[in-house]
C-alpha cells in the first residue's frame, strides 16, 4: 500500500530503517551546515515553521517518495527552507526571494535560477512551491494570480485553496486562538506527472 493510501504512516517519526534509503533521494545524503537566519533578513514580517514532509512524485514514469523534516524561516519576502533526513541531517537548503533562487546540495556547487521550482526539479526530481507556500501557510492566496477559496460552512475555516495549478487541502487546525494550520496537503500535475506533498506543522 502506498504512502498516500496510508495516512497514518507519514505522521510517525521517520526513524524506521526502511525509510532511510528513500529519504536519501535528496542527492549526496551528507550534511550541510544549517543556514543563518540573519542571512535571509528582509523586511519585518517573520514566519517560522518546523515540521515533517512527505513527497510522492513521478519521474520518467517511475513513482518515487521522499520523507523527512523541514525548517521554514521567512523574513519579509525572503524564505529559507531547510530539508532534513529522518536523522536530522541537512539534505538541501533553499533560499528564495521574489527575484532570485538558490539551492544548496551536499558536495555540489549551489544552483541558482530565476524560477526556483525548475531549479529544484532539475536537482531533486520534485519541486516544492516555495513562492506560493509563503502565502498558503498563512491561509492566503498569493497575489497577482487568481485563487479560489472554499470554506467550511459551519466554522468558516478555509478547507481548500486552488491556485496556480495547485490544490491545497487544509486538513486540520490547532486548538489555539487564533487557530493555525496544522496539516496541509498539496497536489498538482507537472507535464502530466502527478506530484503530492503532505506537510505536518509542529509549531
From TrEMBL:
Thylakoid among keywords: no
Membrane topology: Lipid-anchor
S-adenosyl-L-methionine among keywords: no
Segment forming the signal sequence: 1-23
Record-linked InterPro entries: LolA/LolB/LppX (IPR029046), OM_lipoprot_LolB (IPR004565)
A Pfam family reported for this protein in Swiss-Prot or TrEMBL: LolB
Keywords recorded for this protein, A-Z: Cell outer membrane, Chaperone, Lipoprotein, Membrane, Palmitate, Protein transport, Signal, Transport
Subcellular location per the Swiss-Prot or TrEMBL entry: Cell outer membrane
GO cellular component: cell outer membrane
One GO process term, biological-process aspect: protein transport
SUPFAM superfamilies (UniProt xref): Prokaryotic lipoproteins and lipoprotein localization factors
Family: Belongs to the LolB family.
Subunit structure: Monomer.
Protein name per its UniProtKB record: Outer-membrane lipoprotein LolB
